[in-house]
Amino acid sequence: MAITVVGSVAFDTVETPSGRIDRCLAGAATYFSLAASYFTDVRVIAVVGEDFTEKEEAVFATHGIDTRGLERAEGKSFFWQGSYLDNLNEAKTLQTDLNVFASFNPKIPDVYRDSEYLFLANIDPVLQRRVREQMPDVKLVGGDTMNYWINDHRSNLLETLKGVDVLLINDTESKLLAGTRNPVKAAHDVLTMGPKSLVVKHGEYGATAFFSPRSFHSGVAPHPFRAPALPLAEVVDPTGAGDSFAGGFFGYIASQPDLTPEVFKRAMFYGGVMGSFTVEQFGTGRLQQLTRDEIEERFAIFRELTHLESQRS
Amino acid sequence: MAITVVGSVAFDTVETPSGRIDRCLAGAATYFSLAASYFTDVRVIAVVGEDFTEKEEAVFATHGIDTRGLERAEGKSFFWQGSYLDNLNEAKTLQTDLNVFASFNPKIPDVYRDSEYLFLANIDPVLQRRVREQMPDVKLVGGDTMNYWINDHRSNLLETLKGVDVLLINDTESKLLAGTRNPVKAAHDVLTMGPKSLVVKHGEYGATAFFSPRSFHSGVAPHPFRAPALPLAEVVDPTGAGDSFAGGFFGYIASQPDLTPEVFKRAMFYGGVMGSFTVEQFGTGRLQQLTRDEIEERFAIFRELTHLESQRS
Fold first, then answer.
1. Which terminus of chain B is more solvent-facing, meaning fewer CB atoms within 10 Å of its CB: N or C?
2. Domain of life, per the record (chains A, B) (predicted)?
3. Are B262 and A204 a contacting pair at CB < 8 A?
4. Helix, strand, coil percent content, chain A, rounded in steps of 5
5. What is the CATH number of domain B3-306?
6. Which residues neighbour B81 within 8 Å (Cβ) at sequence distance 6 or greater?
7. Nearest-CA neighbor of A41 among A10, A9, A8, A5?
8. pLDDT tens sequence across B163-181
9. Nearest CA of chain A to the CA of B78: how many Å?
10. Nearest chain A alpha carbon to B267
């Protein structure tokens, strides 16, 4: 089943203790699309500038990602520069140039309209809603957001959240959105705002899913579910880990006939798996070079990391 | 199989957002003993003052904990006062009175000498080693420590670690001990210092075990294992959560015939279970009132929280 994703396609310059990369292909929609492409068909909606060349186009094409919704505008693409030299868990932003993204008005190609899944990556909630409203018949809507929208565009965000089924945010964002320091109370509050399910990401500690009675057809809310992150001896570049998690998570869900608790839980593992690959190299380097076998092998390691009984002999 | 534990038996005054408790029975050896007592026989070595009365004695007696190694000294027991008002994840120490603990010289009753398990709770590594050396024939030695000993008594600690089989410390302590910011590299370094296995506690995110080839008879180091903590809507008092984890963990191991990877993993879950009970009430209140059924029920919730396939129908 096809996923349409709207978000940023950008260029990043990143410094980490492992080194530096200049103007690499990046952006939430890029990480999401590449991660999801290993599971299902992906269609991207974004805007890029004249610096987006055949070389970048080929990355999407190689992974079968539909770019007919990728608008080309005069000027430069969204650019971000950040440093993780002080703290691998949190980027210090050194420069943000919105460029062509400043006047982004998402247009949905007709060929995208039969997508059954929609992911609203972290952009202005007004734009997220505009896309959501033009695709009223999708089966499942996933979404992301960040502190800036929660703090300064709260009423717009709350309006958008009414149309999101599964929200993926981090600990800080969840607590900020709910206005409480307890993570469980925060989750319950967020689940009254629209989302049926909430995935709270904990960085190196994995992610926890919280469910409402509306999460599944059964009308019963399962206990929370916690998926691990892989303990890694070196995190080369954490950029895009959360978007890759979302791509693996949503991509797996879209590849399955029904959203059951079992599918949701496995999707959390696939999210962690894709995030763990992303941070092994700069930019989307590792994400471009995966095989489905490597993904399944790492899924088995995630299982061994958390399950009392070993499946391997 | 019996565990001997050496550590502090103390009184605490604690303030948290949920309220305050004055001079309640506490101390690492107390939390450890109570948690472990649900799984196996426990023998405690500590020193208390004249403020330790029949009432406190009865708490140990009710749980079948052997207190013949509990020395009575003139003066007051170890007293600690702390506040979690600003941060539930980290105590602010307001007062520490060592009192009778200042001249503690652990003596091992002869009746303790056939203990097969020894746990060295967080005290001066010189005292830990003194106990360890007097019990050369134990089957397994567990240990804990803290930043103060790592920073200011490093050479003593390193000498003591040579006699510890399973070390239980938190993220910060592990990184500090190894002198590296990467948690996996830190774990590998610590596993060269003596401990065969390392359990790194992550507070609300659970704990991760790292293994060396010496961890089990097989001579093969399993992948790391991550146990969850329970997402709780209210943490009343986090004091003693780590010691209760150690008690549940080590108590379960001592109740089993052999230390296999499966036993170690289940022990991690029981550790998390006992920690999750402790923080539900002030002091040792909850830990005093448990049943084995409640423990098994929560173990099942921990399984559901982490396992892809549900065991309950």
1. C
2. Bacteria
3. no
4. 40, 25, 40
5. 3.40.1190.20
6. B12, B13, B14, B93, B94, B95, B96
7. A5
8. 999 999 999 999 999 999 9
9. 32
10. A308
